[in-house]
Amino acid sequence: MRKYKVLALILWISTGFSGLATAQDFSKLDQFLDSLQMHDKFMGNILLSHEDKVIYERSIGFHDSEAGEKLTEASRFRVGSISKMFTTSLVLKSVEEGKLSLEQPLSDFYPQVKNAEKITISHLLQHRSGIHNFTNDEVYMTYYLNPQTEEFMVEQILAGGSDFEPDSKGEYSNSNFVLLTYILEKVNHHSYADLIKEYITSPLRLKGTYVGKAPEKEETKSYKFGDGKWVFEPLTDMSVPAGAGAIVSTTTDLAKFIEVLYAGKIVSEESLGLMMEMEDGFGRGMFQFPYGVQKGYGHNGGIDGFHSHLSYFPEEKLSVVSLSNGLNFNSNEILLAVLDSYFGKEVKIPNFSSVVLSEEDLDEYVGVYASEQIPLVITFVRDGNVLIAKPSGQPDAPLEAKGEHRFEFAMVGAIFEFAPETGGMTLKQGGASIAFRRK
């Protein structure tokens, strides 16, 4: 739910590979993951399934670091926004049963929302409503750890207003799916948790999947990396994200969910087509993930210290699942290594060598930097011998020195190049190069 905005551009890097998968050798992928584990870059579970059969599975790190309990294949993770695929399935099922219409206006349920009469159920599913994303607001950090009511959450959404005219463009907003959760409950006369159980987890026998409440023993703890160790990250109360991010699941359950979804056993083939229909980069509860000529469909997720990915490549009948409870690396690079391994491409082992700088060396980078290209201010401070980036409205990012005047925040693939003599700084990420200047 909480996201690095500009710094955390979620990019899927396409490759030029156009061949089909041959007999897989996952030894290089194992070496890649061994390196991440050795350098405290990743804790989590990864699964690949081809034609509904698991062909690769790996667990790295700790279920509970303090207790020394390691992750297992059965470990349960908060999956964040992958929940939106479950919620979309329920919405389309309600449409198929005549309880909702994709063209039904939001004003039938929440007339007090700005532009409610222009916003349809379809707009909410495809992030075309214009409703402001409540998790982007600083006040979010004051209440996300505590139980909240529908009334309170609707008040937060109303306070954010509208960011653009409905259906004029697509822009990601968790508010859309929180409202869809409440709408589902109204038209079905059951709680969201009961609907998930009735339509998805019970029929599919997904024993490790449910709407989270108070964490259960089987659920992994949430971590971030700081001060040279994995540190516990507080947990969001699941009443806040609701159908936008409240699902708990396992790699095995998620693979089965998406395989059964594509087999037409959760919603109809027509409804699945609506989920996959892209406009301005958004499907209905789905994104498209290109890999060379191949196209996968699914969703990423991020909540507390958890990072997740679920995708399905229909032509390959390939499911890709990655669930992490601790990440200190670029998740996109991990997914690329997984796919490169499956498709027989070279898997490059990352180089984690760093440059050690003194406190005096770091002081020349400290300051407030602004850009004329984007409305983002980044404040750099020194904490001991670590340089910390503090982007406006986003979590702090501890940087790793990689060379002369060059730092990296590997988790989102961001490079910071300083020019102390001119007071300049360049942020490079995902092919973009953005110039900043110290105030």
From TrEMBL:
Pfam family, one: Beta-lactamase
Signal peptide per UniProt: 1-23
Entry's transmembrane regions: none
UniProt keyword annotation of Ligase present: no
Gene3D superfamilies: DD-peptidase/beta-lactamase superfamily (3.40.710.10)
Beta-lactamase-related domain mapped to chain residues: 46-332
Superkingdom as given in the UniProt entry: Bacteria
Keyword annotations from UniProtKB, A to Z: Signal
Keyword Ribonucleoprotein annotated: no
InterPro entries per the UniProt record, alphabetical: AmpC-like (IPR050491), Beta-lactam-related (IPR001466), Beta-lactam/transpept-like (IPR012338)
Protein name: CubicO group peptidase (Beta-lactamase class C family)
Source species: Algoriphagus antarcticus
